[in-house]
Design brief:
Elements: E1 14-18, E2 21-24, E3 29-32, H1 35-38, H2 47-59, H3 70-83, E4 89-93, H4 96-111, E5 115-119, H5 128-132, E6 149-152, H6 157-166, E7 169-175, E8 177-178, E9 184-185, H7 188-201, E10 204-208, E11 232-235, E12 246-250, H8 269-284, H9 287-304, E13 309-314, E14 317-321, H10 329-335, E15 339-340, E16 342-344, E17 348-351, H11 359-374
Helix pairs in contact: 2-8, 3-8, 6-7, 9-11
Bound molecules: pyridoxal-5'-phosphate.
Pyridoxal-5'-phosphate is lined by residues 95-97, 100, 123-125, 175, 179-180, 208, 210-211, 236.
Length: 376
């Protein structure tokens, strides 16, 4: 059997990671400002995370959701405290798409409605309704086209209000900072208007925090910057620091019923141990505050560099457009300077490092970026 070839691959074999560094099978060391697509939140193979998973693995790797699993309650309590959402409840699942799929379902169950408003350039995953709410027709299969999703441009208040006039919406789903779409910030006034319209029309506000959440923006949720509270938050990526785990934080107005949602693997003991380790390290190492500070430093320094266009972001979720003459910048950073960065459509470089990235590592990146720009 061979692999189903769906990923364009860099010709590299990464075999080890530690903090913000990874190594390939040739022994070359790389600085990782991509974090395996915003997944590495507390640093590769953080010792506390390794120890928590190892201990749990020796004790009990898996049991199903048919028995009480105390680690789930511990995770819900800790996540409530760290995120400031103590009065929400937690549904655990395995991936970002699954979290959004469940959030959309919950919104529809709750309102009895079908229509969902999503935004241009948004990305919500590759499953049934999550992919239909994703603004990329190339990945939407005919079977996913239910006709239940309508799109509006991000930050267009008129189009937003119009959507509420034209449709009886079950939900609005929005990333506080679009990730795959190229680090596009939802403006505070836009998020605040979504909040007030959802309240007025009894629609559900879903804050897709799969990429922009878990402290990455310098606040626990990027939507917090706008001072709004969503009805449902979806989380994944940074939640497990590489261990697959995801969740939906569910506001108090939703009624839980046995059988309403479910999953085999979601909330398994190993995933809970990994997710608890992440939250413990976030608290102990003050990582959200550090992400805010290191991110601001990076933004300030990047602003000084020539040729970078349209710098944007918050915390350690930063993007900029690469001008045409610098089209190979990301490749050069990777193969000549051994620095991983992310990309997005239209020549955008995305920086999504571990929240524990140090000032020295940020400086190292800036120095190499400066050199890479100068040599083109
Ligand atoms: C904002 C957002 N939502 C959802 C997803 C889907 O997550 P997953 O790949 O874990 O299904 C992603 C993945 O990149 C994402 O960036």
């Amino acid at each position: 059997m061979t692999l189903f070839d769906v990923y364009p691959l860099q010709p590299l074999r990464i075999v080890r990671g530690e903090g913000a560094r990874v190594w390939d099978d040739q022994g070359h060391r790389y600085l990782d400002l991509y974090g395996g697509h915003a997944v590495i939140s507390i640093g590769h193979s953080h010792p506390h995370w390794v120890q928590r998973i190892e201990t749990q693995l020796r004790q009990l790797a898996f049991y199903s959701n048919s028995v009480e699993l105390p680690l789930q309650a511990e995770l819900a309590e800790t996540l409530g405290r760290v995120s400031g959402k103590e009065h929400y409840r937690l549904f655990l699942c395995n991936s970002g798409a699954e979290a959004n799929e469940n959030a959309l379902k919950l919104a529809s169950f709750h309102t009895g409605r079908r229509k969902v408003l999503a935004f241009q350039r948004g990305f919500h995953g590759r499953t049934s309704l999550a992919v239909e709410a994703t603004d990329n027709p190339a990945i939407v299969a005919p079977v996913n086209r239910s006709g239940n999703v309508v799109f509006a441009p991000l930050n267009d208040l008129v189009a937003l209000e119009q959507a509420f006039v034209e449709h009886e919406l079950a939900a609005v789903i929005v990333e506080g900072i679009q990730g795959v779409g190229g680090i596009r910030m939802a403006e505070p006034a836009f998020l605040q208007r979504i909040r007030s319209l959802c309240t007025q029309h009894q629609a559900v506000f879903i804050a897709d925090s799969v990429q922009c959440g878990y402290g990455r923006s310098g606040r626990f949720f990027s939507h917090d910057h706008a001072g709004v509270s969503a009805d449902l938050y979806t989380v994944a990526k940074g939640m497990g620091n590489g261990f697959p785990v995801a969740g939906v934080l569910i506001g108090p107005q939703f009624e839980a019923k046995h059988g309403l949602l479910g999953t085999t693997f979601g909330g398994n003991p190993l995933a809970c141990a990994a997710a608890l380790a992440v939250l413990e390290v976030i608290e102990q190492e003050n990582l959200i505050e550090r992400a805010a500070q290191t991110g601001q430093y990076l933004l300030d320094e990047l602003r000084r560099l020539p040729l970078l266009e349209q710098l944007r972001g918050a915390g350690l979720m930063i993007g900029f457009d690469v001008p045409a003459p610098q089209a190979d910048l990301r490749k050069n950073l990777l193969f000549q300077h051994r620095i991983f960065t992310g990309e997005a459509k239209g020549g955008v470089i995305r920086l999504l490092p571990s929240l524990a990235l140090s000032r020295a590592e940020a400086d190292e990146f800036l120095e190499h970026l400066d050199q890479a720009i100068a040599t083109i």
